Amino acid sequence: MQLLTFLNPALISLLALSDTTLAAKKVPKDAILLSQVKTLTLRNNAKTSHRRVSAIPQLTCKGPGCSHYKIDVLRCTNQGASYGDEDIEWSCTASMPEEFKLGSTEVICEGYSSPDDPYVLKGSCGVEYRLVYTDKGEEKYGGGYKWPGSGSSDGEGSTWFSYVFIVMFLGVLGWILYSAWQGLPAQQRRVPRRPGRFWGGGWGGGPGGGDPWDPPPPYPGRKPYGSDQEGWRPGFWSGTAAGAAAGYMAGRSGNNRQQEPLLNNSRGSSWFGGNNNGGGSFTAPSRSGSSSSSSARHESTGFGSTSRR
Where does the record locate the signal sequence feature (predicted)? Predict the structure, then answer.
């Protein structure tokens, strides 16, 4: 009996150890806990590994700056867990032109057996990052004037408002021109008639009928029509509209000088850009997905959490 009493705890310990060993052996080699991952390095135009679902790009850009620049390499660092041991928070850093900065960054990994599995497939993590404008980028790419409250802080321009304002400006301009035309005297608005076929010495040099383009002489005691009418003068609303439109167009022209590079003639000074070889040529700026005209660069950092697919 004493021997059995001694052996029972030993057997229980051995069984528990064997169960732990078997459980450890069941974890596949290509599965890993995110809490064990210290850093992630993601590259543009590269795909993640996949097992249950399709692969995704290692870097996915969201936000207004993506049409002008995309990050080449992004490095994310484990910042510890939030709610659970495997709910990892990340800080991601990349070098980029000074017109851009990182917003939020979300690390997306493939759960090994399901989206709820704490283990993830090695190499399956990608980052969805948001690229927004700095103040310099807003001046260069932001799209001109913004009505207060119509834009967002991450650089999304109020392009729709610009279009509406342009339509309103053209409408006001057309109304001003039409009012000015209507305010002119009738004699100035009248289109002259072409001389008739039998006017002024038509057959053999008879006496001329006078210049058909001259207005008729005024009647005695009466002023010519329209001489006592006052011409159109700009009023308060037309002056206000013209001033607002001029200010708006001046603001847009300043932004357009920064936003749209001029076409450069290679040589020569002819109207069509002719050069010494006799042919006209020009060079237009080329833009790639991961390049920018700015030479000054800086490091920007974004923060985010983890999701599983």
Answer: 1-23
What residue has token string 């867990």? 81
State how far the Cα of 7 lies from the Cα of 30, in Å rounded to an integer.
39
Q: Looking at residue 217, what is its pLDDT?
A: 59
Tokens of 64: 């207004």
Distance, CA of 77 to chain centre: 29
One-letter amino acid at 57 equals P
pLDDT digits (tens, 9 = 90+) for 248-297: 565 555 554 444 444 444 444 444 344 444 444 444 444 444 444 457 99
Q: What angle do CA 230, 231, 234 make, to 5 degrees?
A: 115
Q: How many whole angstroms separate alpha carbon 48 and alpha carbon 55?
A: 5
In angstroms, the CA 85 to CA 76 distance is 18
- Token code pair at residue 270: 């002819």
What is the rounded end-to-end Cα distance, in angstroms, of the chain? 56
pTM of the model: 0.50
Q: Record the tokens describing residue 90, joined without a space.
A: 């990340």
Q: Which amino acid is present at 240?
A: T
Tell me how many degrees the CA angle 155-161-166 measures, rounded to the nearest 5.
Answer: 125
Structure confidence by residue, pLDDT tens digits, 68-87: 999 999 999 999 998 889 99
126: Cβ contacts below 8 Å, ≥ 6 apart: 42, 48, 56, 57, 58, 59, 60, 107, 108, 109
| Closest residue by Cα to residue 177 from 245, 252, 225 | 245
Q: What is the chain's Cα-based Rg?
A: 38
Domain boundaries, the chain: 28-140+297-308
Q: How far apart are CA 110 and CA 272, in angstroms?
A: 58
pLDDT digits (tens, 9 = 90+) for 193-247: 555 554 444 444 444 445 555 555 555 555 554 444 444 455 555 565 566 666 6
Residue 113, C-beta contacts closer than 8 angstroms, at least 6 positions apart: 52, 119
